[in-house]
Amino acid sequence: MILLRGSCLLWVGLAGHAAAAHAACGDQLSATGRLQAAAGGVQIAFAPRTGPLTVGRHFALDLVACAPPGTATPTALRVDADMPAHRHGMNYRATVQALGAGRFLAEGLMFHMPGRWRFIFDLDPGGGAPPLRLTQEVELE
């Protein structure tokens, strides 16, 4: 079972069509298990490719990165996860494939024990902007 924890940074202050564009970020992903993270005006929506996250099973994530209007769509993304309370990460390193138009596929992830995990997304927002880190915590039982 997965429980969402409230560590996601919320992106606030958009008006008009920009808010609607971000509200729709990731709508093409499966609604089952879909999560979001945001920072610096960039939003990432992600969902497990096959079913819910389960302890001890490899999984893949479909991801969509959305940038505010008038800014470049991120073209590079790194995905990792750790357990802040235990001060360790995953035993596996994910590989990420850029699919174009802000879409990515991350494979080779596995949560090897139950507890609170933090997804970590490092992305290059493009246009010479500094790298961004977005996080989202989940609880696995």
Helices and strands, with pairings:
Elements: E1 2-4, H1 16-23, E2 35-39, E3 42-48, E4 59-66, E5 76-83, E6 88-89, E7 95-100, E8 103-109, E9 115-124, E10 132-140
In short:
With 141 residues, the chain is mainly beta. It is 6% helix and 46% strand.
Structural write-up:
It contains one helix and ten strands. The protein has 141 residues and is mainly beta. The radius of gyration is 15 Å and the shape is globular.
Structural class: mainly beta
The radius of gyration over CA amounts to 15 Å
Major sheet: order of its strands?
A: 1-10-9-5-6
Give unreliable regions as ranges.
Answer: 1-22
Secondary structure: number of strands: 10
Give average pLDDT, whole number: 83
Portion in helices: under 10%
The secondary-structure element order is EHEEEEEEEEE
Q: What characteristics describe this protein?
A:
single chain, 141 residues, mainly beta, five-stranded antiparallel sheet, 1 helix, 10 strands, 6% helix, disordered N terminus
